[in-house]
Amino acid sequence: MEGKIVVVTSGKGGVGKTTVTASLGAALALQGKRVAVVDMDIGLRNLDVVMGLENRIIFNIVDVVQGKCKLKQATIKDRRINNLYLIPASQSDEKDTIKPENMKWLCNKLKKEFDFTLLDCPAGIEQGFKNSIEAADEAIVVCMPEISSVRDADRVIGLLYSRSITPKLIVNRIIPKMVERGDMLSHQDVVDVLSIELLGLVETDENIVVSANTGLPVVMQKDSKAGKSFIEIAMRMNGHPDLPIEDPTAPRSLWKKLSGKISRKSKVQIS
Amino acid sequence: MMFNALFKKLMNRGEDSKEVAKKRLKFALVYDKLEIKDEMLEDLQRDLMEVISRYFEIDRKQMSLDIERAEGTSALILNTPILAARHKKPQQNNPPA
Ligand SMILES: Nc1ncnc2c1ncn2[C@@H]1O[C@H](COP(=O)(O)OP(=O)(O)OP(=O)(O)O)[C@@H](O)[C@H]1O
Ligand SMILES: [Mg+2]
Question: pTM for this one?
Answer without folding.
Answer: 0.83
